[in-house]
Amino acid sequence: MNYPKLPEDCKSMLCKHLTPESFEELKNKKTANGFTLEQAINSGVVNIDSGIGVYAGDKESYTLFDKLFDPIIKDYHGFGKEDKHTSNLNPDDLNAPNPDPDGEFIVSTRIRVGRNMDNMPLGPAISKEQRDKVEASVVEGLSTLDGELKGDYFPLLGMSKEIQDDLIKDHFLFKEGDRFLDAVGLNKNWPEGRGIYHNSDKTFLVWVNEEDQLRIISMQQGGDIKEVFSRLVSAIKSIETKVPFSYSEHLGYITSCPTNLGTAMRASVHIALPKLAEDMEAFKTITDKYYLQIRGIHGEHSESEGGVYDISNLRRLGITEVEAVQDMYDGVVALIKAEKELS
Ligand code: ADP
Ligand code: ARG
């Protein structure tokens, strides 16, 4: 394998941090699951517009290819090799009274975490048999949930196009055919082994075998962020008694994309900020200050509609879950204040 052709103006973390030296040192290494540097970087090589451009095939990828992953993790999360990740899932430590009790700005709140099974390769290196086994174990674990978390599992295989499209449009289900995931082999054998579990109100959902083996999601209309967080925490705690999660003292919860390591948590609101949107520079000054990411309302790589944005925490590693949600909450309070001042 030769050093990949990366254009001069490529801005991804792969282009920034892959050096001829690290490439030479890593190019012939293989994890116990057979995952190579070539596979780890292929998505960023094929998709030159990537923001990050690398994925891990397993937990070992993060140590075996550390010369590449460490600088990317440092750059994205500000988290160094000697740093330790800590967890705090106590909703009582979150200071988040509804910032929009009259429902003028916040359409909905959603908090998700990514999880993968311990002692299994991650999606990019998993075999069909292993993926099917993950699906079976997760579905069995979920079938024991009760109360508000009780629900049903709907495999993607056999789901009608109409139901699938409605679930995607209503923000409940993942899209299909993501080119970044495609290039790392994460979409192999699609749609087999993939599916969605949800309760009848669709306030609690679990995606199975998408970018991560589990995406545990709590969501509802309005801005009661604490209620959404509390529901998520009770779900995580129940599921982890049934499904062992991949975790590292250093990196927290292990995920296929390095942006999700640590808490693996993205806490977001869909929020109407039409006035602020007229001055994106002022908007971004606030989102940068509070470590927030701006997305469109149909998920990553989508556009805003009608001045409604998806605003979420950017940092996930080296801070606790409570701090990740607090970042989002504090930023949303500041955004609402700014929007009100402009109205
Ligand atoms: P992820 O959150 O898993 O990183 P995406 O950004 O692609 O992935 O979002 C997944 C889905 O969740 C999309 O349909 C998106 O519109 C929806 N979503 C995200 N945040 C919210 C929210 N606060 N309210 C409603 N839907 C949301
Ligand atoms: N690999 C894509 C990129 O580098 C996505 C990165 C972050 N998003 C994600 N869903 N993991 O742009």
Structure summary:
The chain is α+β, with helices and mostly antiparallel strands and 343 residues long.
Count the DSSP helices. 11
Strand order of the largest sheet: 2-3-4-5-1-8-10-9
Task: Please write the CATH class name of the largest domain.
Answer: Alpha Beta
Helix content: 25-40%
Question: What is the beta-strand fraction?
Answer: 15-25%
Run of helices and strands: HHHHHEHEHHEEEHEEEHEEH
Count of strand segments: 10
Averaged pLDDT:
97
CATH architecture of the largest domain: 2-Layer Sandwich
Shape category: globular
Bound molecules: adenosine-5'-diphosphate, arginine
Please state the structural category. alpha+beta
Q: CATH superfamily of the largest domain, please?
A: Glutamine synthetase/guanido kinase, catalytic domain
Largest sheet, in brief, is: 8 strands, antiparallel
Q: Which residue ranges are poorly predicted, with pLDDT under 50 across at least 5 consecutive positions?
A: none
Alpha-carbon Rg, integer: 20 Å
CATH topology-level fold name of the largest domain: Creatine Kinase, Chain A, domain 2
Q: End-to-end distance, in Å?
A: 57 Å
Q: How many discrete domains?
A: 2
